[in-house]
Design goal:
By secondary structure, the protein is α+β, with helices and mostly antiparallel strands. It has four helices and 13 strands. The strands form three sheets. The chain has a seven-stranded mixed sheet with strand order 5-13-6-7-10-9-12. The chain has a four-stranded antiparallel sheet with strand order 1-2-4-3, with helices on one face. Strands 8-11 form a two-stranded antiparallel ribbon. Strand 6 and strand 7 form a beta hairpin. Helix 3 packs across helix 4. The longest helix is centred in the first third of the chain and has 13 residues. The termini are far apart.
Amino acid sequence: MRVLPFGRGAVLAEYDTIDEVMAVDSALRASNLDGLGECVPAARTVLVRYSGVDRRALDELLVPGAAVPRAEGPIVEIPVTYDGVDLEEVAAATGLSTEEVIETHAGTVYSAAFLGFTPGWAYLVGLPAALRLPRRSTPRTAITAGSVAIANEFTGVYPTVSPGGWHLLGHTDEAMFDVTRDKPALIMAGDRVRFVRT
């Protein structure tokens, strides 16, 4: 790992795996360290803002071996119609039937590792190994909002119309991001997510 200065009052800690990121993020959130500010996890980094913090104590929390297991967040259930344009292609690439793809995807409880890409986009980890495929070789210029997709070790839901290179398995009518709600993003880092077949 590396800890880099990130302007005044912030550091960026770099890690080798998403598991290290999630463990350190959990440790930071569970700590009562005075002066600790916003913590922003990403795929291989955690950005930490602070003011008047005990840097030695902070540095100890940033060591993956010192991290505590991530607390289980609330479960967010998302109804999904599995009618994605890539469903058959995913089945062929994985050696599964389309029904097995659906059952495998819907039969897993995922964890929201971090948010990014666009407001309301949650990178969900826990995708079974049988469904792990690289991103599409040619991204699409516009993916419909609510599209449920997979790529590499992640699954997620496109919150708005946007370009994208993930494999589309289905769609949901749930609004993933709505600025009029008290909590605009339906899924927050640390939440658990279950896709419910409709």
